[in-house]
Specification:
alpha/beta; Rossmann fold
């Protein structure tokens, strides 16, 4: 089943092999790299999944006011504040969330759990560097009660 996926990550150079694999599975992927673009997309369109990075810099005075350094631990937890801000609207819209971070520390996982994110929806980019593992995780988040089988074999 094709899903609409919004991928919000400040490192857009990281995405192509993974976004391409999602497209190969039939999903429609929109990638954005700024808070303003993510806000605009979520306000304008319905998505089945939001893939959310954790460390996101601000790019304007407006973003800096909405996501101030003191509330985001100087940008290292902007995704957490973003999740808290959008959580109720995402839940109401039926949008699943996959938090994907380079941070391997358990502290960030716990903060997201405390904010209401399911533990299974929080992964590191290192854990999912293999494209097959990534696709499997996405399918698990999109269909948490289904048995997931990944087609084909992809290289990392």
């Amino acid at each position: 089943m094709a899903h609409r996926i919004l991928w919000f990550d400040n490192d857009l150079d990281f995405l192509p092999p993974y976004a391409d694999a999602l497209r190969d599975e039939g999903h429609r992927v929109t990638a954005v790299g700024t808070l303003a673009d993510a806000d605009r997309e979520l306000a304008a369109s319905r998505y089945d999944l939001l893939i959310l990075d954790v460390m996101i810099p601000t790019h304007s005075e407006v973003e800096e006011q909405q996501y101030p350094p003191e509330a985001t631990n100087k940008g290292t937890e902007t995704g957490l504040l973003y999740y808290r801000t959008w959580r109720d609207r995402l839940t109401k819209a039926g949008t699943a969330v996959l938090i994907l971070t380079v941070r391997p520390d358990s502290n960030i996982r716990q903060m997201f759990k405390d904010a209401g994110a399911p533990a299974a929806a929080i992964s590191t980019k290192l854990d999912l560097r293999n494209v097959n593992d990534f696709i499997t995780k996405v399918e698990q988040v999109l269909n948490p009660t289904a048995s997931v089988h990944v087609r084909g074999s992809r290289k990392p």
